[in-house]
Every structure is written in structure tokens, then in C-alpha cells.
């Protein structure tokens, strides 16, 4: 059976790929097989992957909100848009959880011109500038022009010192992060030029998805027990990570949730982050 991907490409329906993605939700194999059987009864020639995703999400949610939330991860990251502001804050919190010092939204004067820097990291005296490339649409990838441009910015900044974490800091590394993917040429150029890349699926064993899943660093937009407007209100209150509400329900009270709603949200959050 032929299905249509986000990119518009037409491919064969692959049961094993669907099973792999469903298992990543935390659901056991028996439940995953039941979900796939239900989906196979409903799919048809030319169905979109987006429609298949909606079916899978709905079926998982009937079993467990946290399974559905984990399966919803990529969409949840897209909900940090439409601009890149909350994605940048999320990336900062992600590295903060890994033991880095972080700063966001800096403007630094390079040798030639000034530059706005999305995120700065410091760990073991190594200071890294991060450029975040957020895309609201799944099919948009970062091509080779992105690392070429970022390299020129890094080169303009790296030979000077700045008051970032201390009064005399020097930027020694550069990393580009996207919520989507890099093209093959972009990866090749970055490797050749000494730039680090992080995307949804790159590097293979330490990509954005694995960082999030392995350390339970889920964005607040994952939660299925909150509406879109409630998620937006929490982001405005600077609540970015699901972990940030588990032992602090005050923010949920601030956005007007009832006691019973708060209980449901905290239950999902705790199961999602395995605080049970």
C-alpha cells in the first residue's frame, strides 16, 4: 500500500517503521501490536503519514496519556514556535539539565560586525556558541548554506574576548541545532569545518530525540491534558519543561486550572518523566 509522507514523497507503508516509532512511546509490544492492527484496518491507498500519526496518537491516548505525550514529541517541539524564541529557551534548559552554564539572547561585537547569539554554553572552561534553526514545517531541512553562514559568524567572533560568564571569555566552539534535519552536504561541510551539529536524528546515538528521551527532558507542549492555549500561557510564564511542574503546581493554578485538572496534568507529567 502506498502512503504520502510530509515531504510529498510516495512510499510503501512500512509496518516495522510504525512499530519502532510506537515502541518509543513507552508502550509495551502487546499494546503496540493492537494499535497497529487497528490502524491497518483503517488505512487506505494514498493516506498521509500525518493521518496515520493522528490515528496512532488517538489510540495510544486511550491507553495512556503519557504514551501519547511521548509519541507526540516531534509535534510538541514544533509547538514551541511559530518563532524560534521558545525553542531557544528550551535548548538552553536542555543543556542546563546536562550540567552546562547557559545564557540566551546575547549581542556580541565581532571583529567586523555585531552578532545576535541564540544560546551560549560553558562547561569545563569551554565556551560554545549555539545557533538554533527552528522550523515550524516538518519538510524544511537545513542545507549546506546554514553551516557556511554560521561558520563565517563564528570566525568573526572567536578571536575576541567577551563578558559572557566571566569578564574575559573566549568562544572556542560552535554548534548548530535544528528541530528538523540537516542535508548530507550540510553534515559533510560541518564535519570538515569543525562545527558541531544536533538535529532530530543526528548524531545517530546522541541526537535531539535521544537526549530528550534518555533524560526525560520533555517540553511542556508534550502534555495531552493541556489545551494549546494553556500550553502557550505556561510558556509565557517561563515554564518550558514538563519537569518544572511536577513538584510545583503553582503555575497550573496561575493559568486557571481546577484542582481536578491539575491532578490529571501532574499525573501525566509524573508518568511521562517516570517520577512514579
Q: What features would you highlight for this structure?
A:
single chain, about 280 residues, alpha/beta, Trna Endonuclease, Chain: A, domain 1, 5-stranded mixed sheet, 3-stranded mixed sheet, about 45% helix, globular
In short:
This protein has 276 residues and is of the alpha/beta class.
Write a structural description.
By secondary structure, the chain is an alpha/beta fold. Among the domains are: 2-63, no CATH class; 85-214, Trna Endonuclease, Chain: A, domain 1 (3-Layer(aba) Sandwich), CATH 3.40.1350.10. The chain has helices at 15-23, 29-42, 49-63, 65-71, 73-78, 85-97, 145-157, 184-193, 208-215, 228-236, 243-246, 250-254, 259-272; strands spanning 2-4, 10-12, 47-48, 101-109, 114-123, 126-133, 161-162, 169-170, 173-178, 196-198. It has a five-stranded mixed β-sheet, with helices on both faces. The longest helix is centred in the first third of the chain and has 15 residues, at 49-63. It is globular. The termini are far apart.
Amino acid at each position: 500500500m502506498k502512503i504520502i509522507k510530509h515531504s510529498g514523497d510516495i512510499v510503501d507503508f512500512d509496518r516495522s517503521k510504525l512499530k519502532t516509532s510506537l515502541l518509543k512511546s513507552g508502550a509495551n509490544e502487546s499494546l503496540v501490536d493492537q494499535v497497529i492492527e487497528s490502524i491497518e484496518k483503517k488505512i487506505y491507498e494514498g493516506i498521509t503519514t500525518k493521518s496515520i500519526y493522528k490515528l496512532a496518537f488517538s489510540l495510544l491516548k486511550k491507553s495512556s496519556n503519557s504514551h501519547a505525550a511521548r509519541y507526540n514529541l516531534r509535534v510538541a517541539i514544533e509547538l514551541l514556535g511559530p518563532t524560534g524564541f521558545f525553542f531557544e529557551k528550551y535548548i538552553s534548559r536542555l543543556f542546563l539539565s546536562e550540567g552546562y552554564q547557559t545564557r540566551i539572547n546575547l549581542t556580541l561585537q565581532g571583529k567586523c560586525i555585531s552578532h545576535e547569539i541564540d544560546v551560549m554554553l560553558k562547561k569545563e572552561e569551554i565556551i560554545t556558541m549555539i545557533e538554533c534553526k527552528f522550523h515550524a514545517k516538518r519538510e524544511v531541512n537545513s542545507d549546506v548554506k546554514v553551516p557556511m553562514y554560521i561558520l563565517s559568524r563564528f570566525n568573526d567572533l572567536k578571536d575576541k574576548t567577551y563578558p559572557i560568564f566571566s569578564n574575559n571569555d573566549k568562544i572556542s566552539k560552535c554548534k548548530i541545532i535544528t528541530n528538523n534535519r540537516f542535508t548530507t552536504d550540510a553534515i559533510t561541510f560541518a564535519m570538515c569545518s569543525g562545527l558541531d551539529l544536533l538535529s532530530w536524528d543526528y548524531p545517530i546515538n546522541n541526537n535531539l530525540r535521544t537526549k530528550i528521551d534518555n533524560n526525560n527532558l520533555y517540553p511542556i507542549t508534550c502534555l495531552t491534558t493541556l489545551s494549546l492555549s494553556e500550553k502557550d500561557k505556561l510558556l509565557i510564564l517561563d515554564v518550558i519543561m514538563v519537569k518544572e511542574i511536577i513538584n510545583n503546581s503553582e503555575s497550573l493554578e496561575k493559568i486557571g486550572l481546577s484542582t481536578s485538572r491539575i491532578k490529571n496534568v501532574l499525573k501525566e507529567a509524573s508518568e511521562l518523566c517516570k517520577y512514579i
